[in-house]
Amino acid sequence: MIAPVLDEIHSTYKGRLTVARLNIDQNPDTPAKHGVRGIPTLMLFKGGNVEATKVGALSKSQLTAFLEGNGIDLPKPV
């Protein structure tokens, strides 16, 4: 499950990185708008635009690598 990983990333980088979740049952138009075909889908937004997408659950190290591989300079955890 990815929720605990997202919670940890959110806590670690709070105030420096925004983590948002969307319930697709409550927002059924949003997945189609962004071409989501699988759950979970992680989308990296920069300036309001989707810059990268990853489908499937990730470990913390995989998520960190995904973010860093897409130009997100993660600060050292506090």
UniProtKB/TrEMBL annotation:
Single GO cellular component term: cytosol
Domain (Thioredoxin) ranges: 1-68
Gene3D superfamilies noted in UniProt: Glutaredoxin
Keywords: Disulfide bond, Electron transport, Redox-active center, Transport
One GO BP: cell redox homeostasis
Coiled coil, from the record: none
Keyword Disulfide bond: yes
An MF annotation (GO) of this entry: protein-disulfide reductase activity
SUPFAM superfamilies linked: Thioredoxin-like
Record keyword tRNA processing present: no
Alphabetical list of CDD domains matching this protein: TRX_family (cd02947)
Family recorded in the similarity comment: Belongs to the thioredoxin family.
Protein name: Thioredoxin domain-containing protein
